[in-house]
Design goal:
212 residues, 75% helix, mainly alpha, 9 helices
Length: 212
């Protein structure tokens, strides 16, 4: 029974990750607008995904442990290009490419660089002793800040963010059932709380927009 539930959790996570950004992409393309989306949030999220993916590949971890990340990276790249296009900031494409591609190779120039990117950076706060967690949390806080400032959810997809929350919940379950790694659990709990926060904020300002 436990094995079946674990398999279901892994499968649902992969399926949702494959579809995760599609509602957001559809909303942006349909409206031909990136109103409400935080460019900083998207760039930070992509950076966090790339650091985690590079680390997994560098140490030769099994593909199933990070299979969703190449999919998420591809979707984030497409969404980033759409946001830049509809925001009239296509001149920033080349700098972004240079930063992300350069960072991808820089991470593995020396072993200590990739290790630093994935190990303790804030000894006074154990739950945040992981650069990927810091980057991911910062990306979600950047989107929250954008929503608070504009008080307009615009084209931000509540479905995409709620799907992100669900995948965090399934990862909490799979971690408990497999490695029971406390740091990984704390990371997913933080991401779950922030994803739910963003989702409720989107719905709040969307409701306000419709009733005004």
């Amino acid at each position: 029974m436990e094995r079946a539930l674990l398999g279901l959790a892994h499968g649902s996570t992969l399926v949702l990750c494959a579809l995760l950004k599609l509602p957001q992409l559809r909303a942006v393309l349909a409206a031909r607008s990136a109103r409400g989306l935080s460019l900083h949030s998207l760039a930070l999220e992509l950076a966090g995904f790339l650091v985690f993916l590079r680390y997994q590949i560098y140490y030769g971890y099994p593909l199933l442990t990070y299979l969703e990340y190449p999919i998420l990276v591809a979707q984030d790249v497409i969404l980033l290009l759409c946001v830049l296009h509809y925001s009239g900031k296509m001149e920033h494409v080349l700098p972004y490419i240079a930063i992300f591609v350069g960072g991808w190779y820089l991470l593995t120039l020396q072993k200590w660089i990739i290790d630093l990117a994935m190990t303790a950076v804030l000894s006074w706060c154990p739950p945040l002793q992981n650069l990927c967690t810091l980057i991911s949390a910062a990306s979600k806080l950047a989107q929250l800040r954008c929503l608070w400032q504009t008080r307009d959810s615009g084209q931000v997809s509540a479905l995409t963010w709620s799907m992100s929350a669900f995948t965090c919940a399934t990862r909490i379950f799979t971690t408990v059932m497999t490695t029971n790694d406390l740091m990984v659990l704390v990371r997913f709990v933080i991401m779950l709380v922030l994803n739910i926060w963003v989702t409720t904020t989107i719905l709040r300002y969307r409701k306000t927009e419709k009733t005004d």
